[in-house]
Amino acid sequence: MVIPVFCTDQRTMPKFEYALTHTDGRARRGSLTTAHGKVETPVFMPVGTAATVKGMTSDAISATGADIILANTYHLMLRPGAERVNRLGGLHEFMDWRKPILTDSGGFQVMSLTDLRKLSDEGVEFRSHIDGAKFWLTPERSIEIQNYLGSTITMALDECTANGVDARSAANSMRLSMRWALRCRDAFEVRTGYGLFGIVQGSVYPDLRIESAAALKEIGFDGYAVGGLAVGEGQEAMFSVLDVTAPALPENRPRYLMGVGTPSDIVGAVRRGIDMFDCVLPTRSGRTGQAFTRRGTLNIRNARHAEDPRPLDADSDYPGVGQVSRAYLHHLFKAKEMLGPILLTMHNLHYYQDLMASIRGAIEMGSLDEFAAVFHEEQASGDIEQI
Amino acid sequence: MVIPVFCTDQRTMPKFEYALTHTDGRARRGSLTTAHGKVETPVFMPVGTAATVKGMTSDAISATGADIILANTYHLMLRPGAERVNRLGGLHEFMDWRKPILTDSGGFQVMSLTDLRKLSDEGVEFRSHIDGAKFWLTPERSIEIQNYLGSTITMALDECTANGVDARSAANSMRLSMRWALRCRDAFEVRTGYGLFGIVQGSVYPDLRIESAAALKEIGFDGYAVGGLAVGEGQEAMFSVLDVTAPALPENRPRYLMGVGTPSDIVGAVRRGIDMFDCVLPTRSGRTGQAFTRRGTLNIRNARHAEDPRPLDADSDYPGVGQVSRAYLHHLFKAKEMLGPILLTMHNLHYYQDLMASIRGAIEMGSLDEFAAVFHEEQASGDIEQI
């Protein structure tokens, strides 16, 4: 069915594997070895939707400290097309990013971006948001596309259960995802150094989450994701689901919380045993003028920054970005200059990577609780506007 | 009148001076020493209109090989305002660019971008293209603004004579510019390492160009610009004006051809004794998908590039940019991703800098004629689409 994307000798390729090196409470410090390099966990993956982290060259992404990025199957299957990317050597070659890439299954965007969807046990029919063309996405097709892309980590196709559904609907939806997970496992071509992750669903219902985790473990995956969160349920409900779900997942496999989140979400989820994160927040917010810092967020478009010579973030050690003046960034946003979004994207991604490095350090030292206490105090201070 | 922008000790500051090191026919190889560093000539200055070369960080500008950039007085006086930039430490500090900056006088943009202008011997009244606010620009105010910006090279305010005017109108316009040039010289605060350039006008009329050059030499400037060209007169007429004008300028001062041009314009102008250039072509064209290469130009938006795995420019040694595939760049432009304009801006600026380095090398070797012959042959070949 599928065409091998990388010609590297499979015999010398490192195995796809997760090594747990430290724990601190339920928090885990480890590393993930892949065909495209090693990733230290807990890790944050910047989102590179259409084979580009918006406004960032490959070198600039690396310079923020990122060792793995996420790309969106839905966008790439529509444009430029998975088969075309494959003919061009795969996604790593195409976008000149030589480190690991995780691709989602396309399911979430089909549900959130398209009209005229028809969902059945077989899969989902939809129309492209670009030109209205009709497409089919099935578990088998999602895996095929991700293989064409040459994804280091392939995600199983699932239905992301909507927030607020009753237990019966959540169960039906989750069980559909579990049937699809099995079909994904069967369709996935095992290659050394590449991994396939299953996705736990079950909404906010503990028994459904546990049933889902058990079903996935029974099938057997290289990693386990927690899906259907960050869809409006709130941080407390999300953490409650993690409290139930993370302990139900295997210790020796990475755990990935999809689409999360704010710095506070990440710190809380790490403390509940999560290893991997992705979110558009640092990049999308950066493009609209919001900067993340240790001491809270700052909107550079506010008039108060117009003549402020202070650096964006005195705590940042990011050369050429963190030390740029607020007045200059304000000017760039007012003048609608591309460089404003570019610099704030760089800054925010660097802040997120810096946060993850601090979290990893704290777990190694067994001091994550102390780190979290200081983190929350500084975030809540809103001091960034004053210092 | 003006506030010193840089506090550097004036006694240890290098003098603003041009050293001519080689000639090849009328072409000149030299270097310009300034308060903000040395510039090898002939040189091309990328345009950073609103205190940013669109889409480029300071480090990225330097990485293309640029040692000096141009910024636009008109845009900066309107937003964020010259006095504000001054309070923020000057333009170098504001945009975090530590090498020389040349600013134009604002006159050209007032004429081309604004409505409701009133021109008199005193100066020009106009309304902002941003919000319609009323402004005055006089020779004294233009110099004051450029001093507030901390420009390494300040340009005298002139009237850029329109293409196609008769000799009488051209003479009147040029003589107004000469009266303004004298007022600019008087208003300019002499500081070690900083320079003021006068601008030769006179349209396509040889006697007027010679009269203008003589008037400026009489006043005395640190450099001499040739203005009023690249306004629609065509390359042949432009070269004819340079044939007359360049020999009328002092040997020991830099010569700057404003707003020029295509690679072919630059090669021809260097051969006629020009040392400095600026143009929006590499940056503006890059944003719309046109790439400059040794073997002609290429429009990456053309469908033929959609599945072309070849590098944008096999001749480019620019890491991370020249070797990106045409298919990827095509995808980025089709998907309206910021990274497309960013990468082509980088590529085009690098191509221009590379061209200037080759020109400088050829003058040193005394082989500019041979270089120009090969240059024109390769440009005309259109081979870039084939190789």
What key phrases describe this protein's structure?
eight-stranded parallel β-sheet; alpha/beta; disordered N terminus; homodimer; three-stranded antiparallel β-sheet; 387 residues; TIM Barrel; 2 domains
Q: Short summary of the structure?
A:
The structure is a homodimer of 387-residue chains. Chain A is an alpha/beta fold and 387 residues long. Chain A has helices at 58-63, 73-78, 82-87, 91-95, 107-113, 139-149, 167-187, 206-219, 235-245, 263-270, 281-288, 326-334, 339-365, 368-381, and strands spanning 17-24, 27-34, 37-41, 43-45, 69-71, 101-103, 118-119, 124-127, 134-137, 153-155, 195-200, 223-226, 255-257, 276-278, 290-293, 296-299.
Secondary-structure topology with pairs:
Two copies of one chain form a homodimer.
Chain A: E1 17-24, E2 27-34, E3 37-41, E4 43-45, H1 58-63, E5 69-71, H2 73-78, H3 82-87, H4 91-95, E6 101-103, H5 107-113, E7 118-119, E8 124-127, E9 134-137, H6 139-149, E10 153-155, H7 167-187, E11 195-200, H8 206-219, E12 223-226, H9 235-245, E13 255-257, H10 263-270, E14 276-278, H11 281-288, E15 290-293, E16 296-299, H12 326-334, H13 339-365, H14 368-381
Parallel strand pairs in A: 4-14, 5-6, 6-10, 10-11, 11-12, 12-13, 13-14
Antiparallel strand pairs in A: 1-2, 2-3, 7-8, 8-9, 15-16
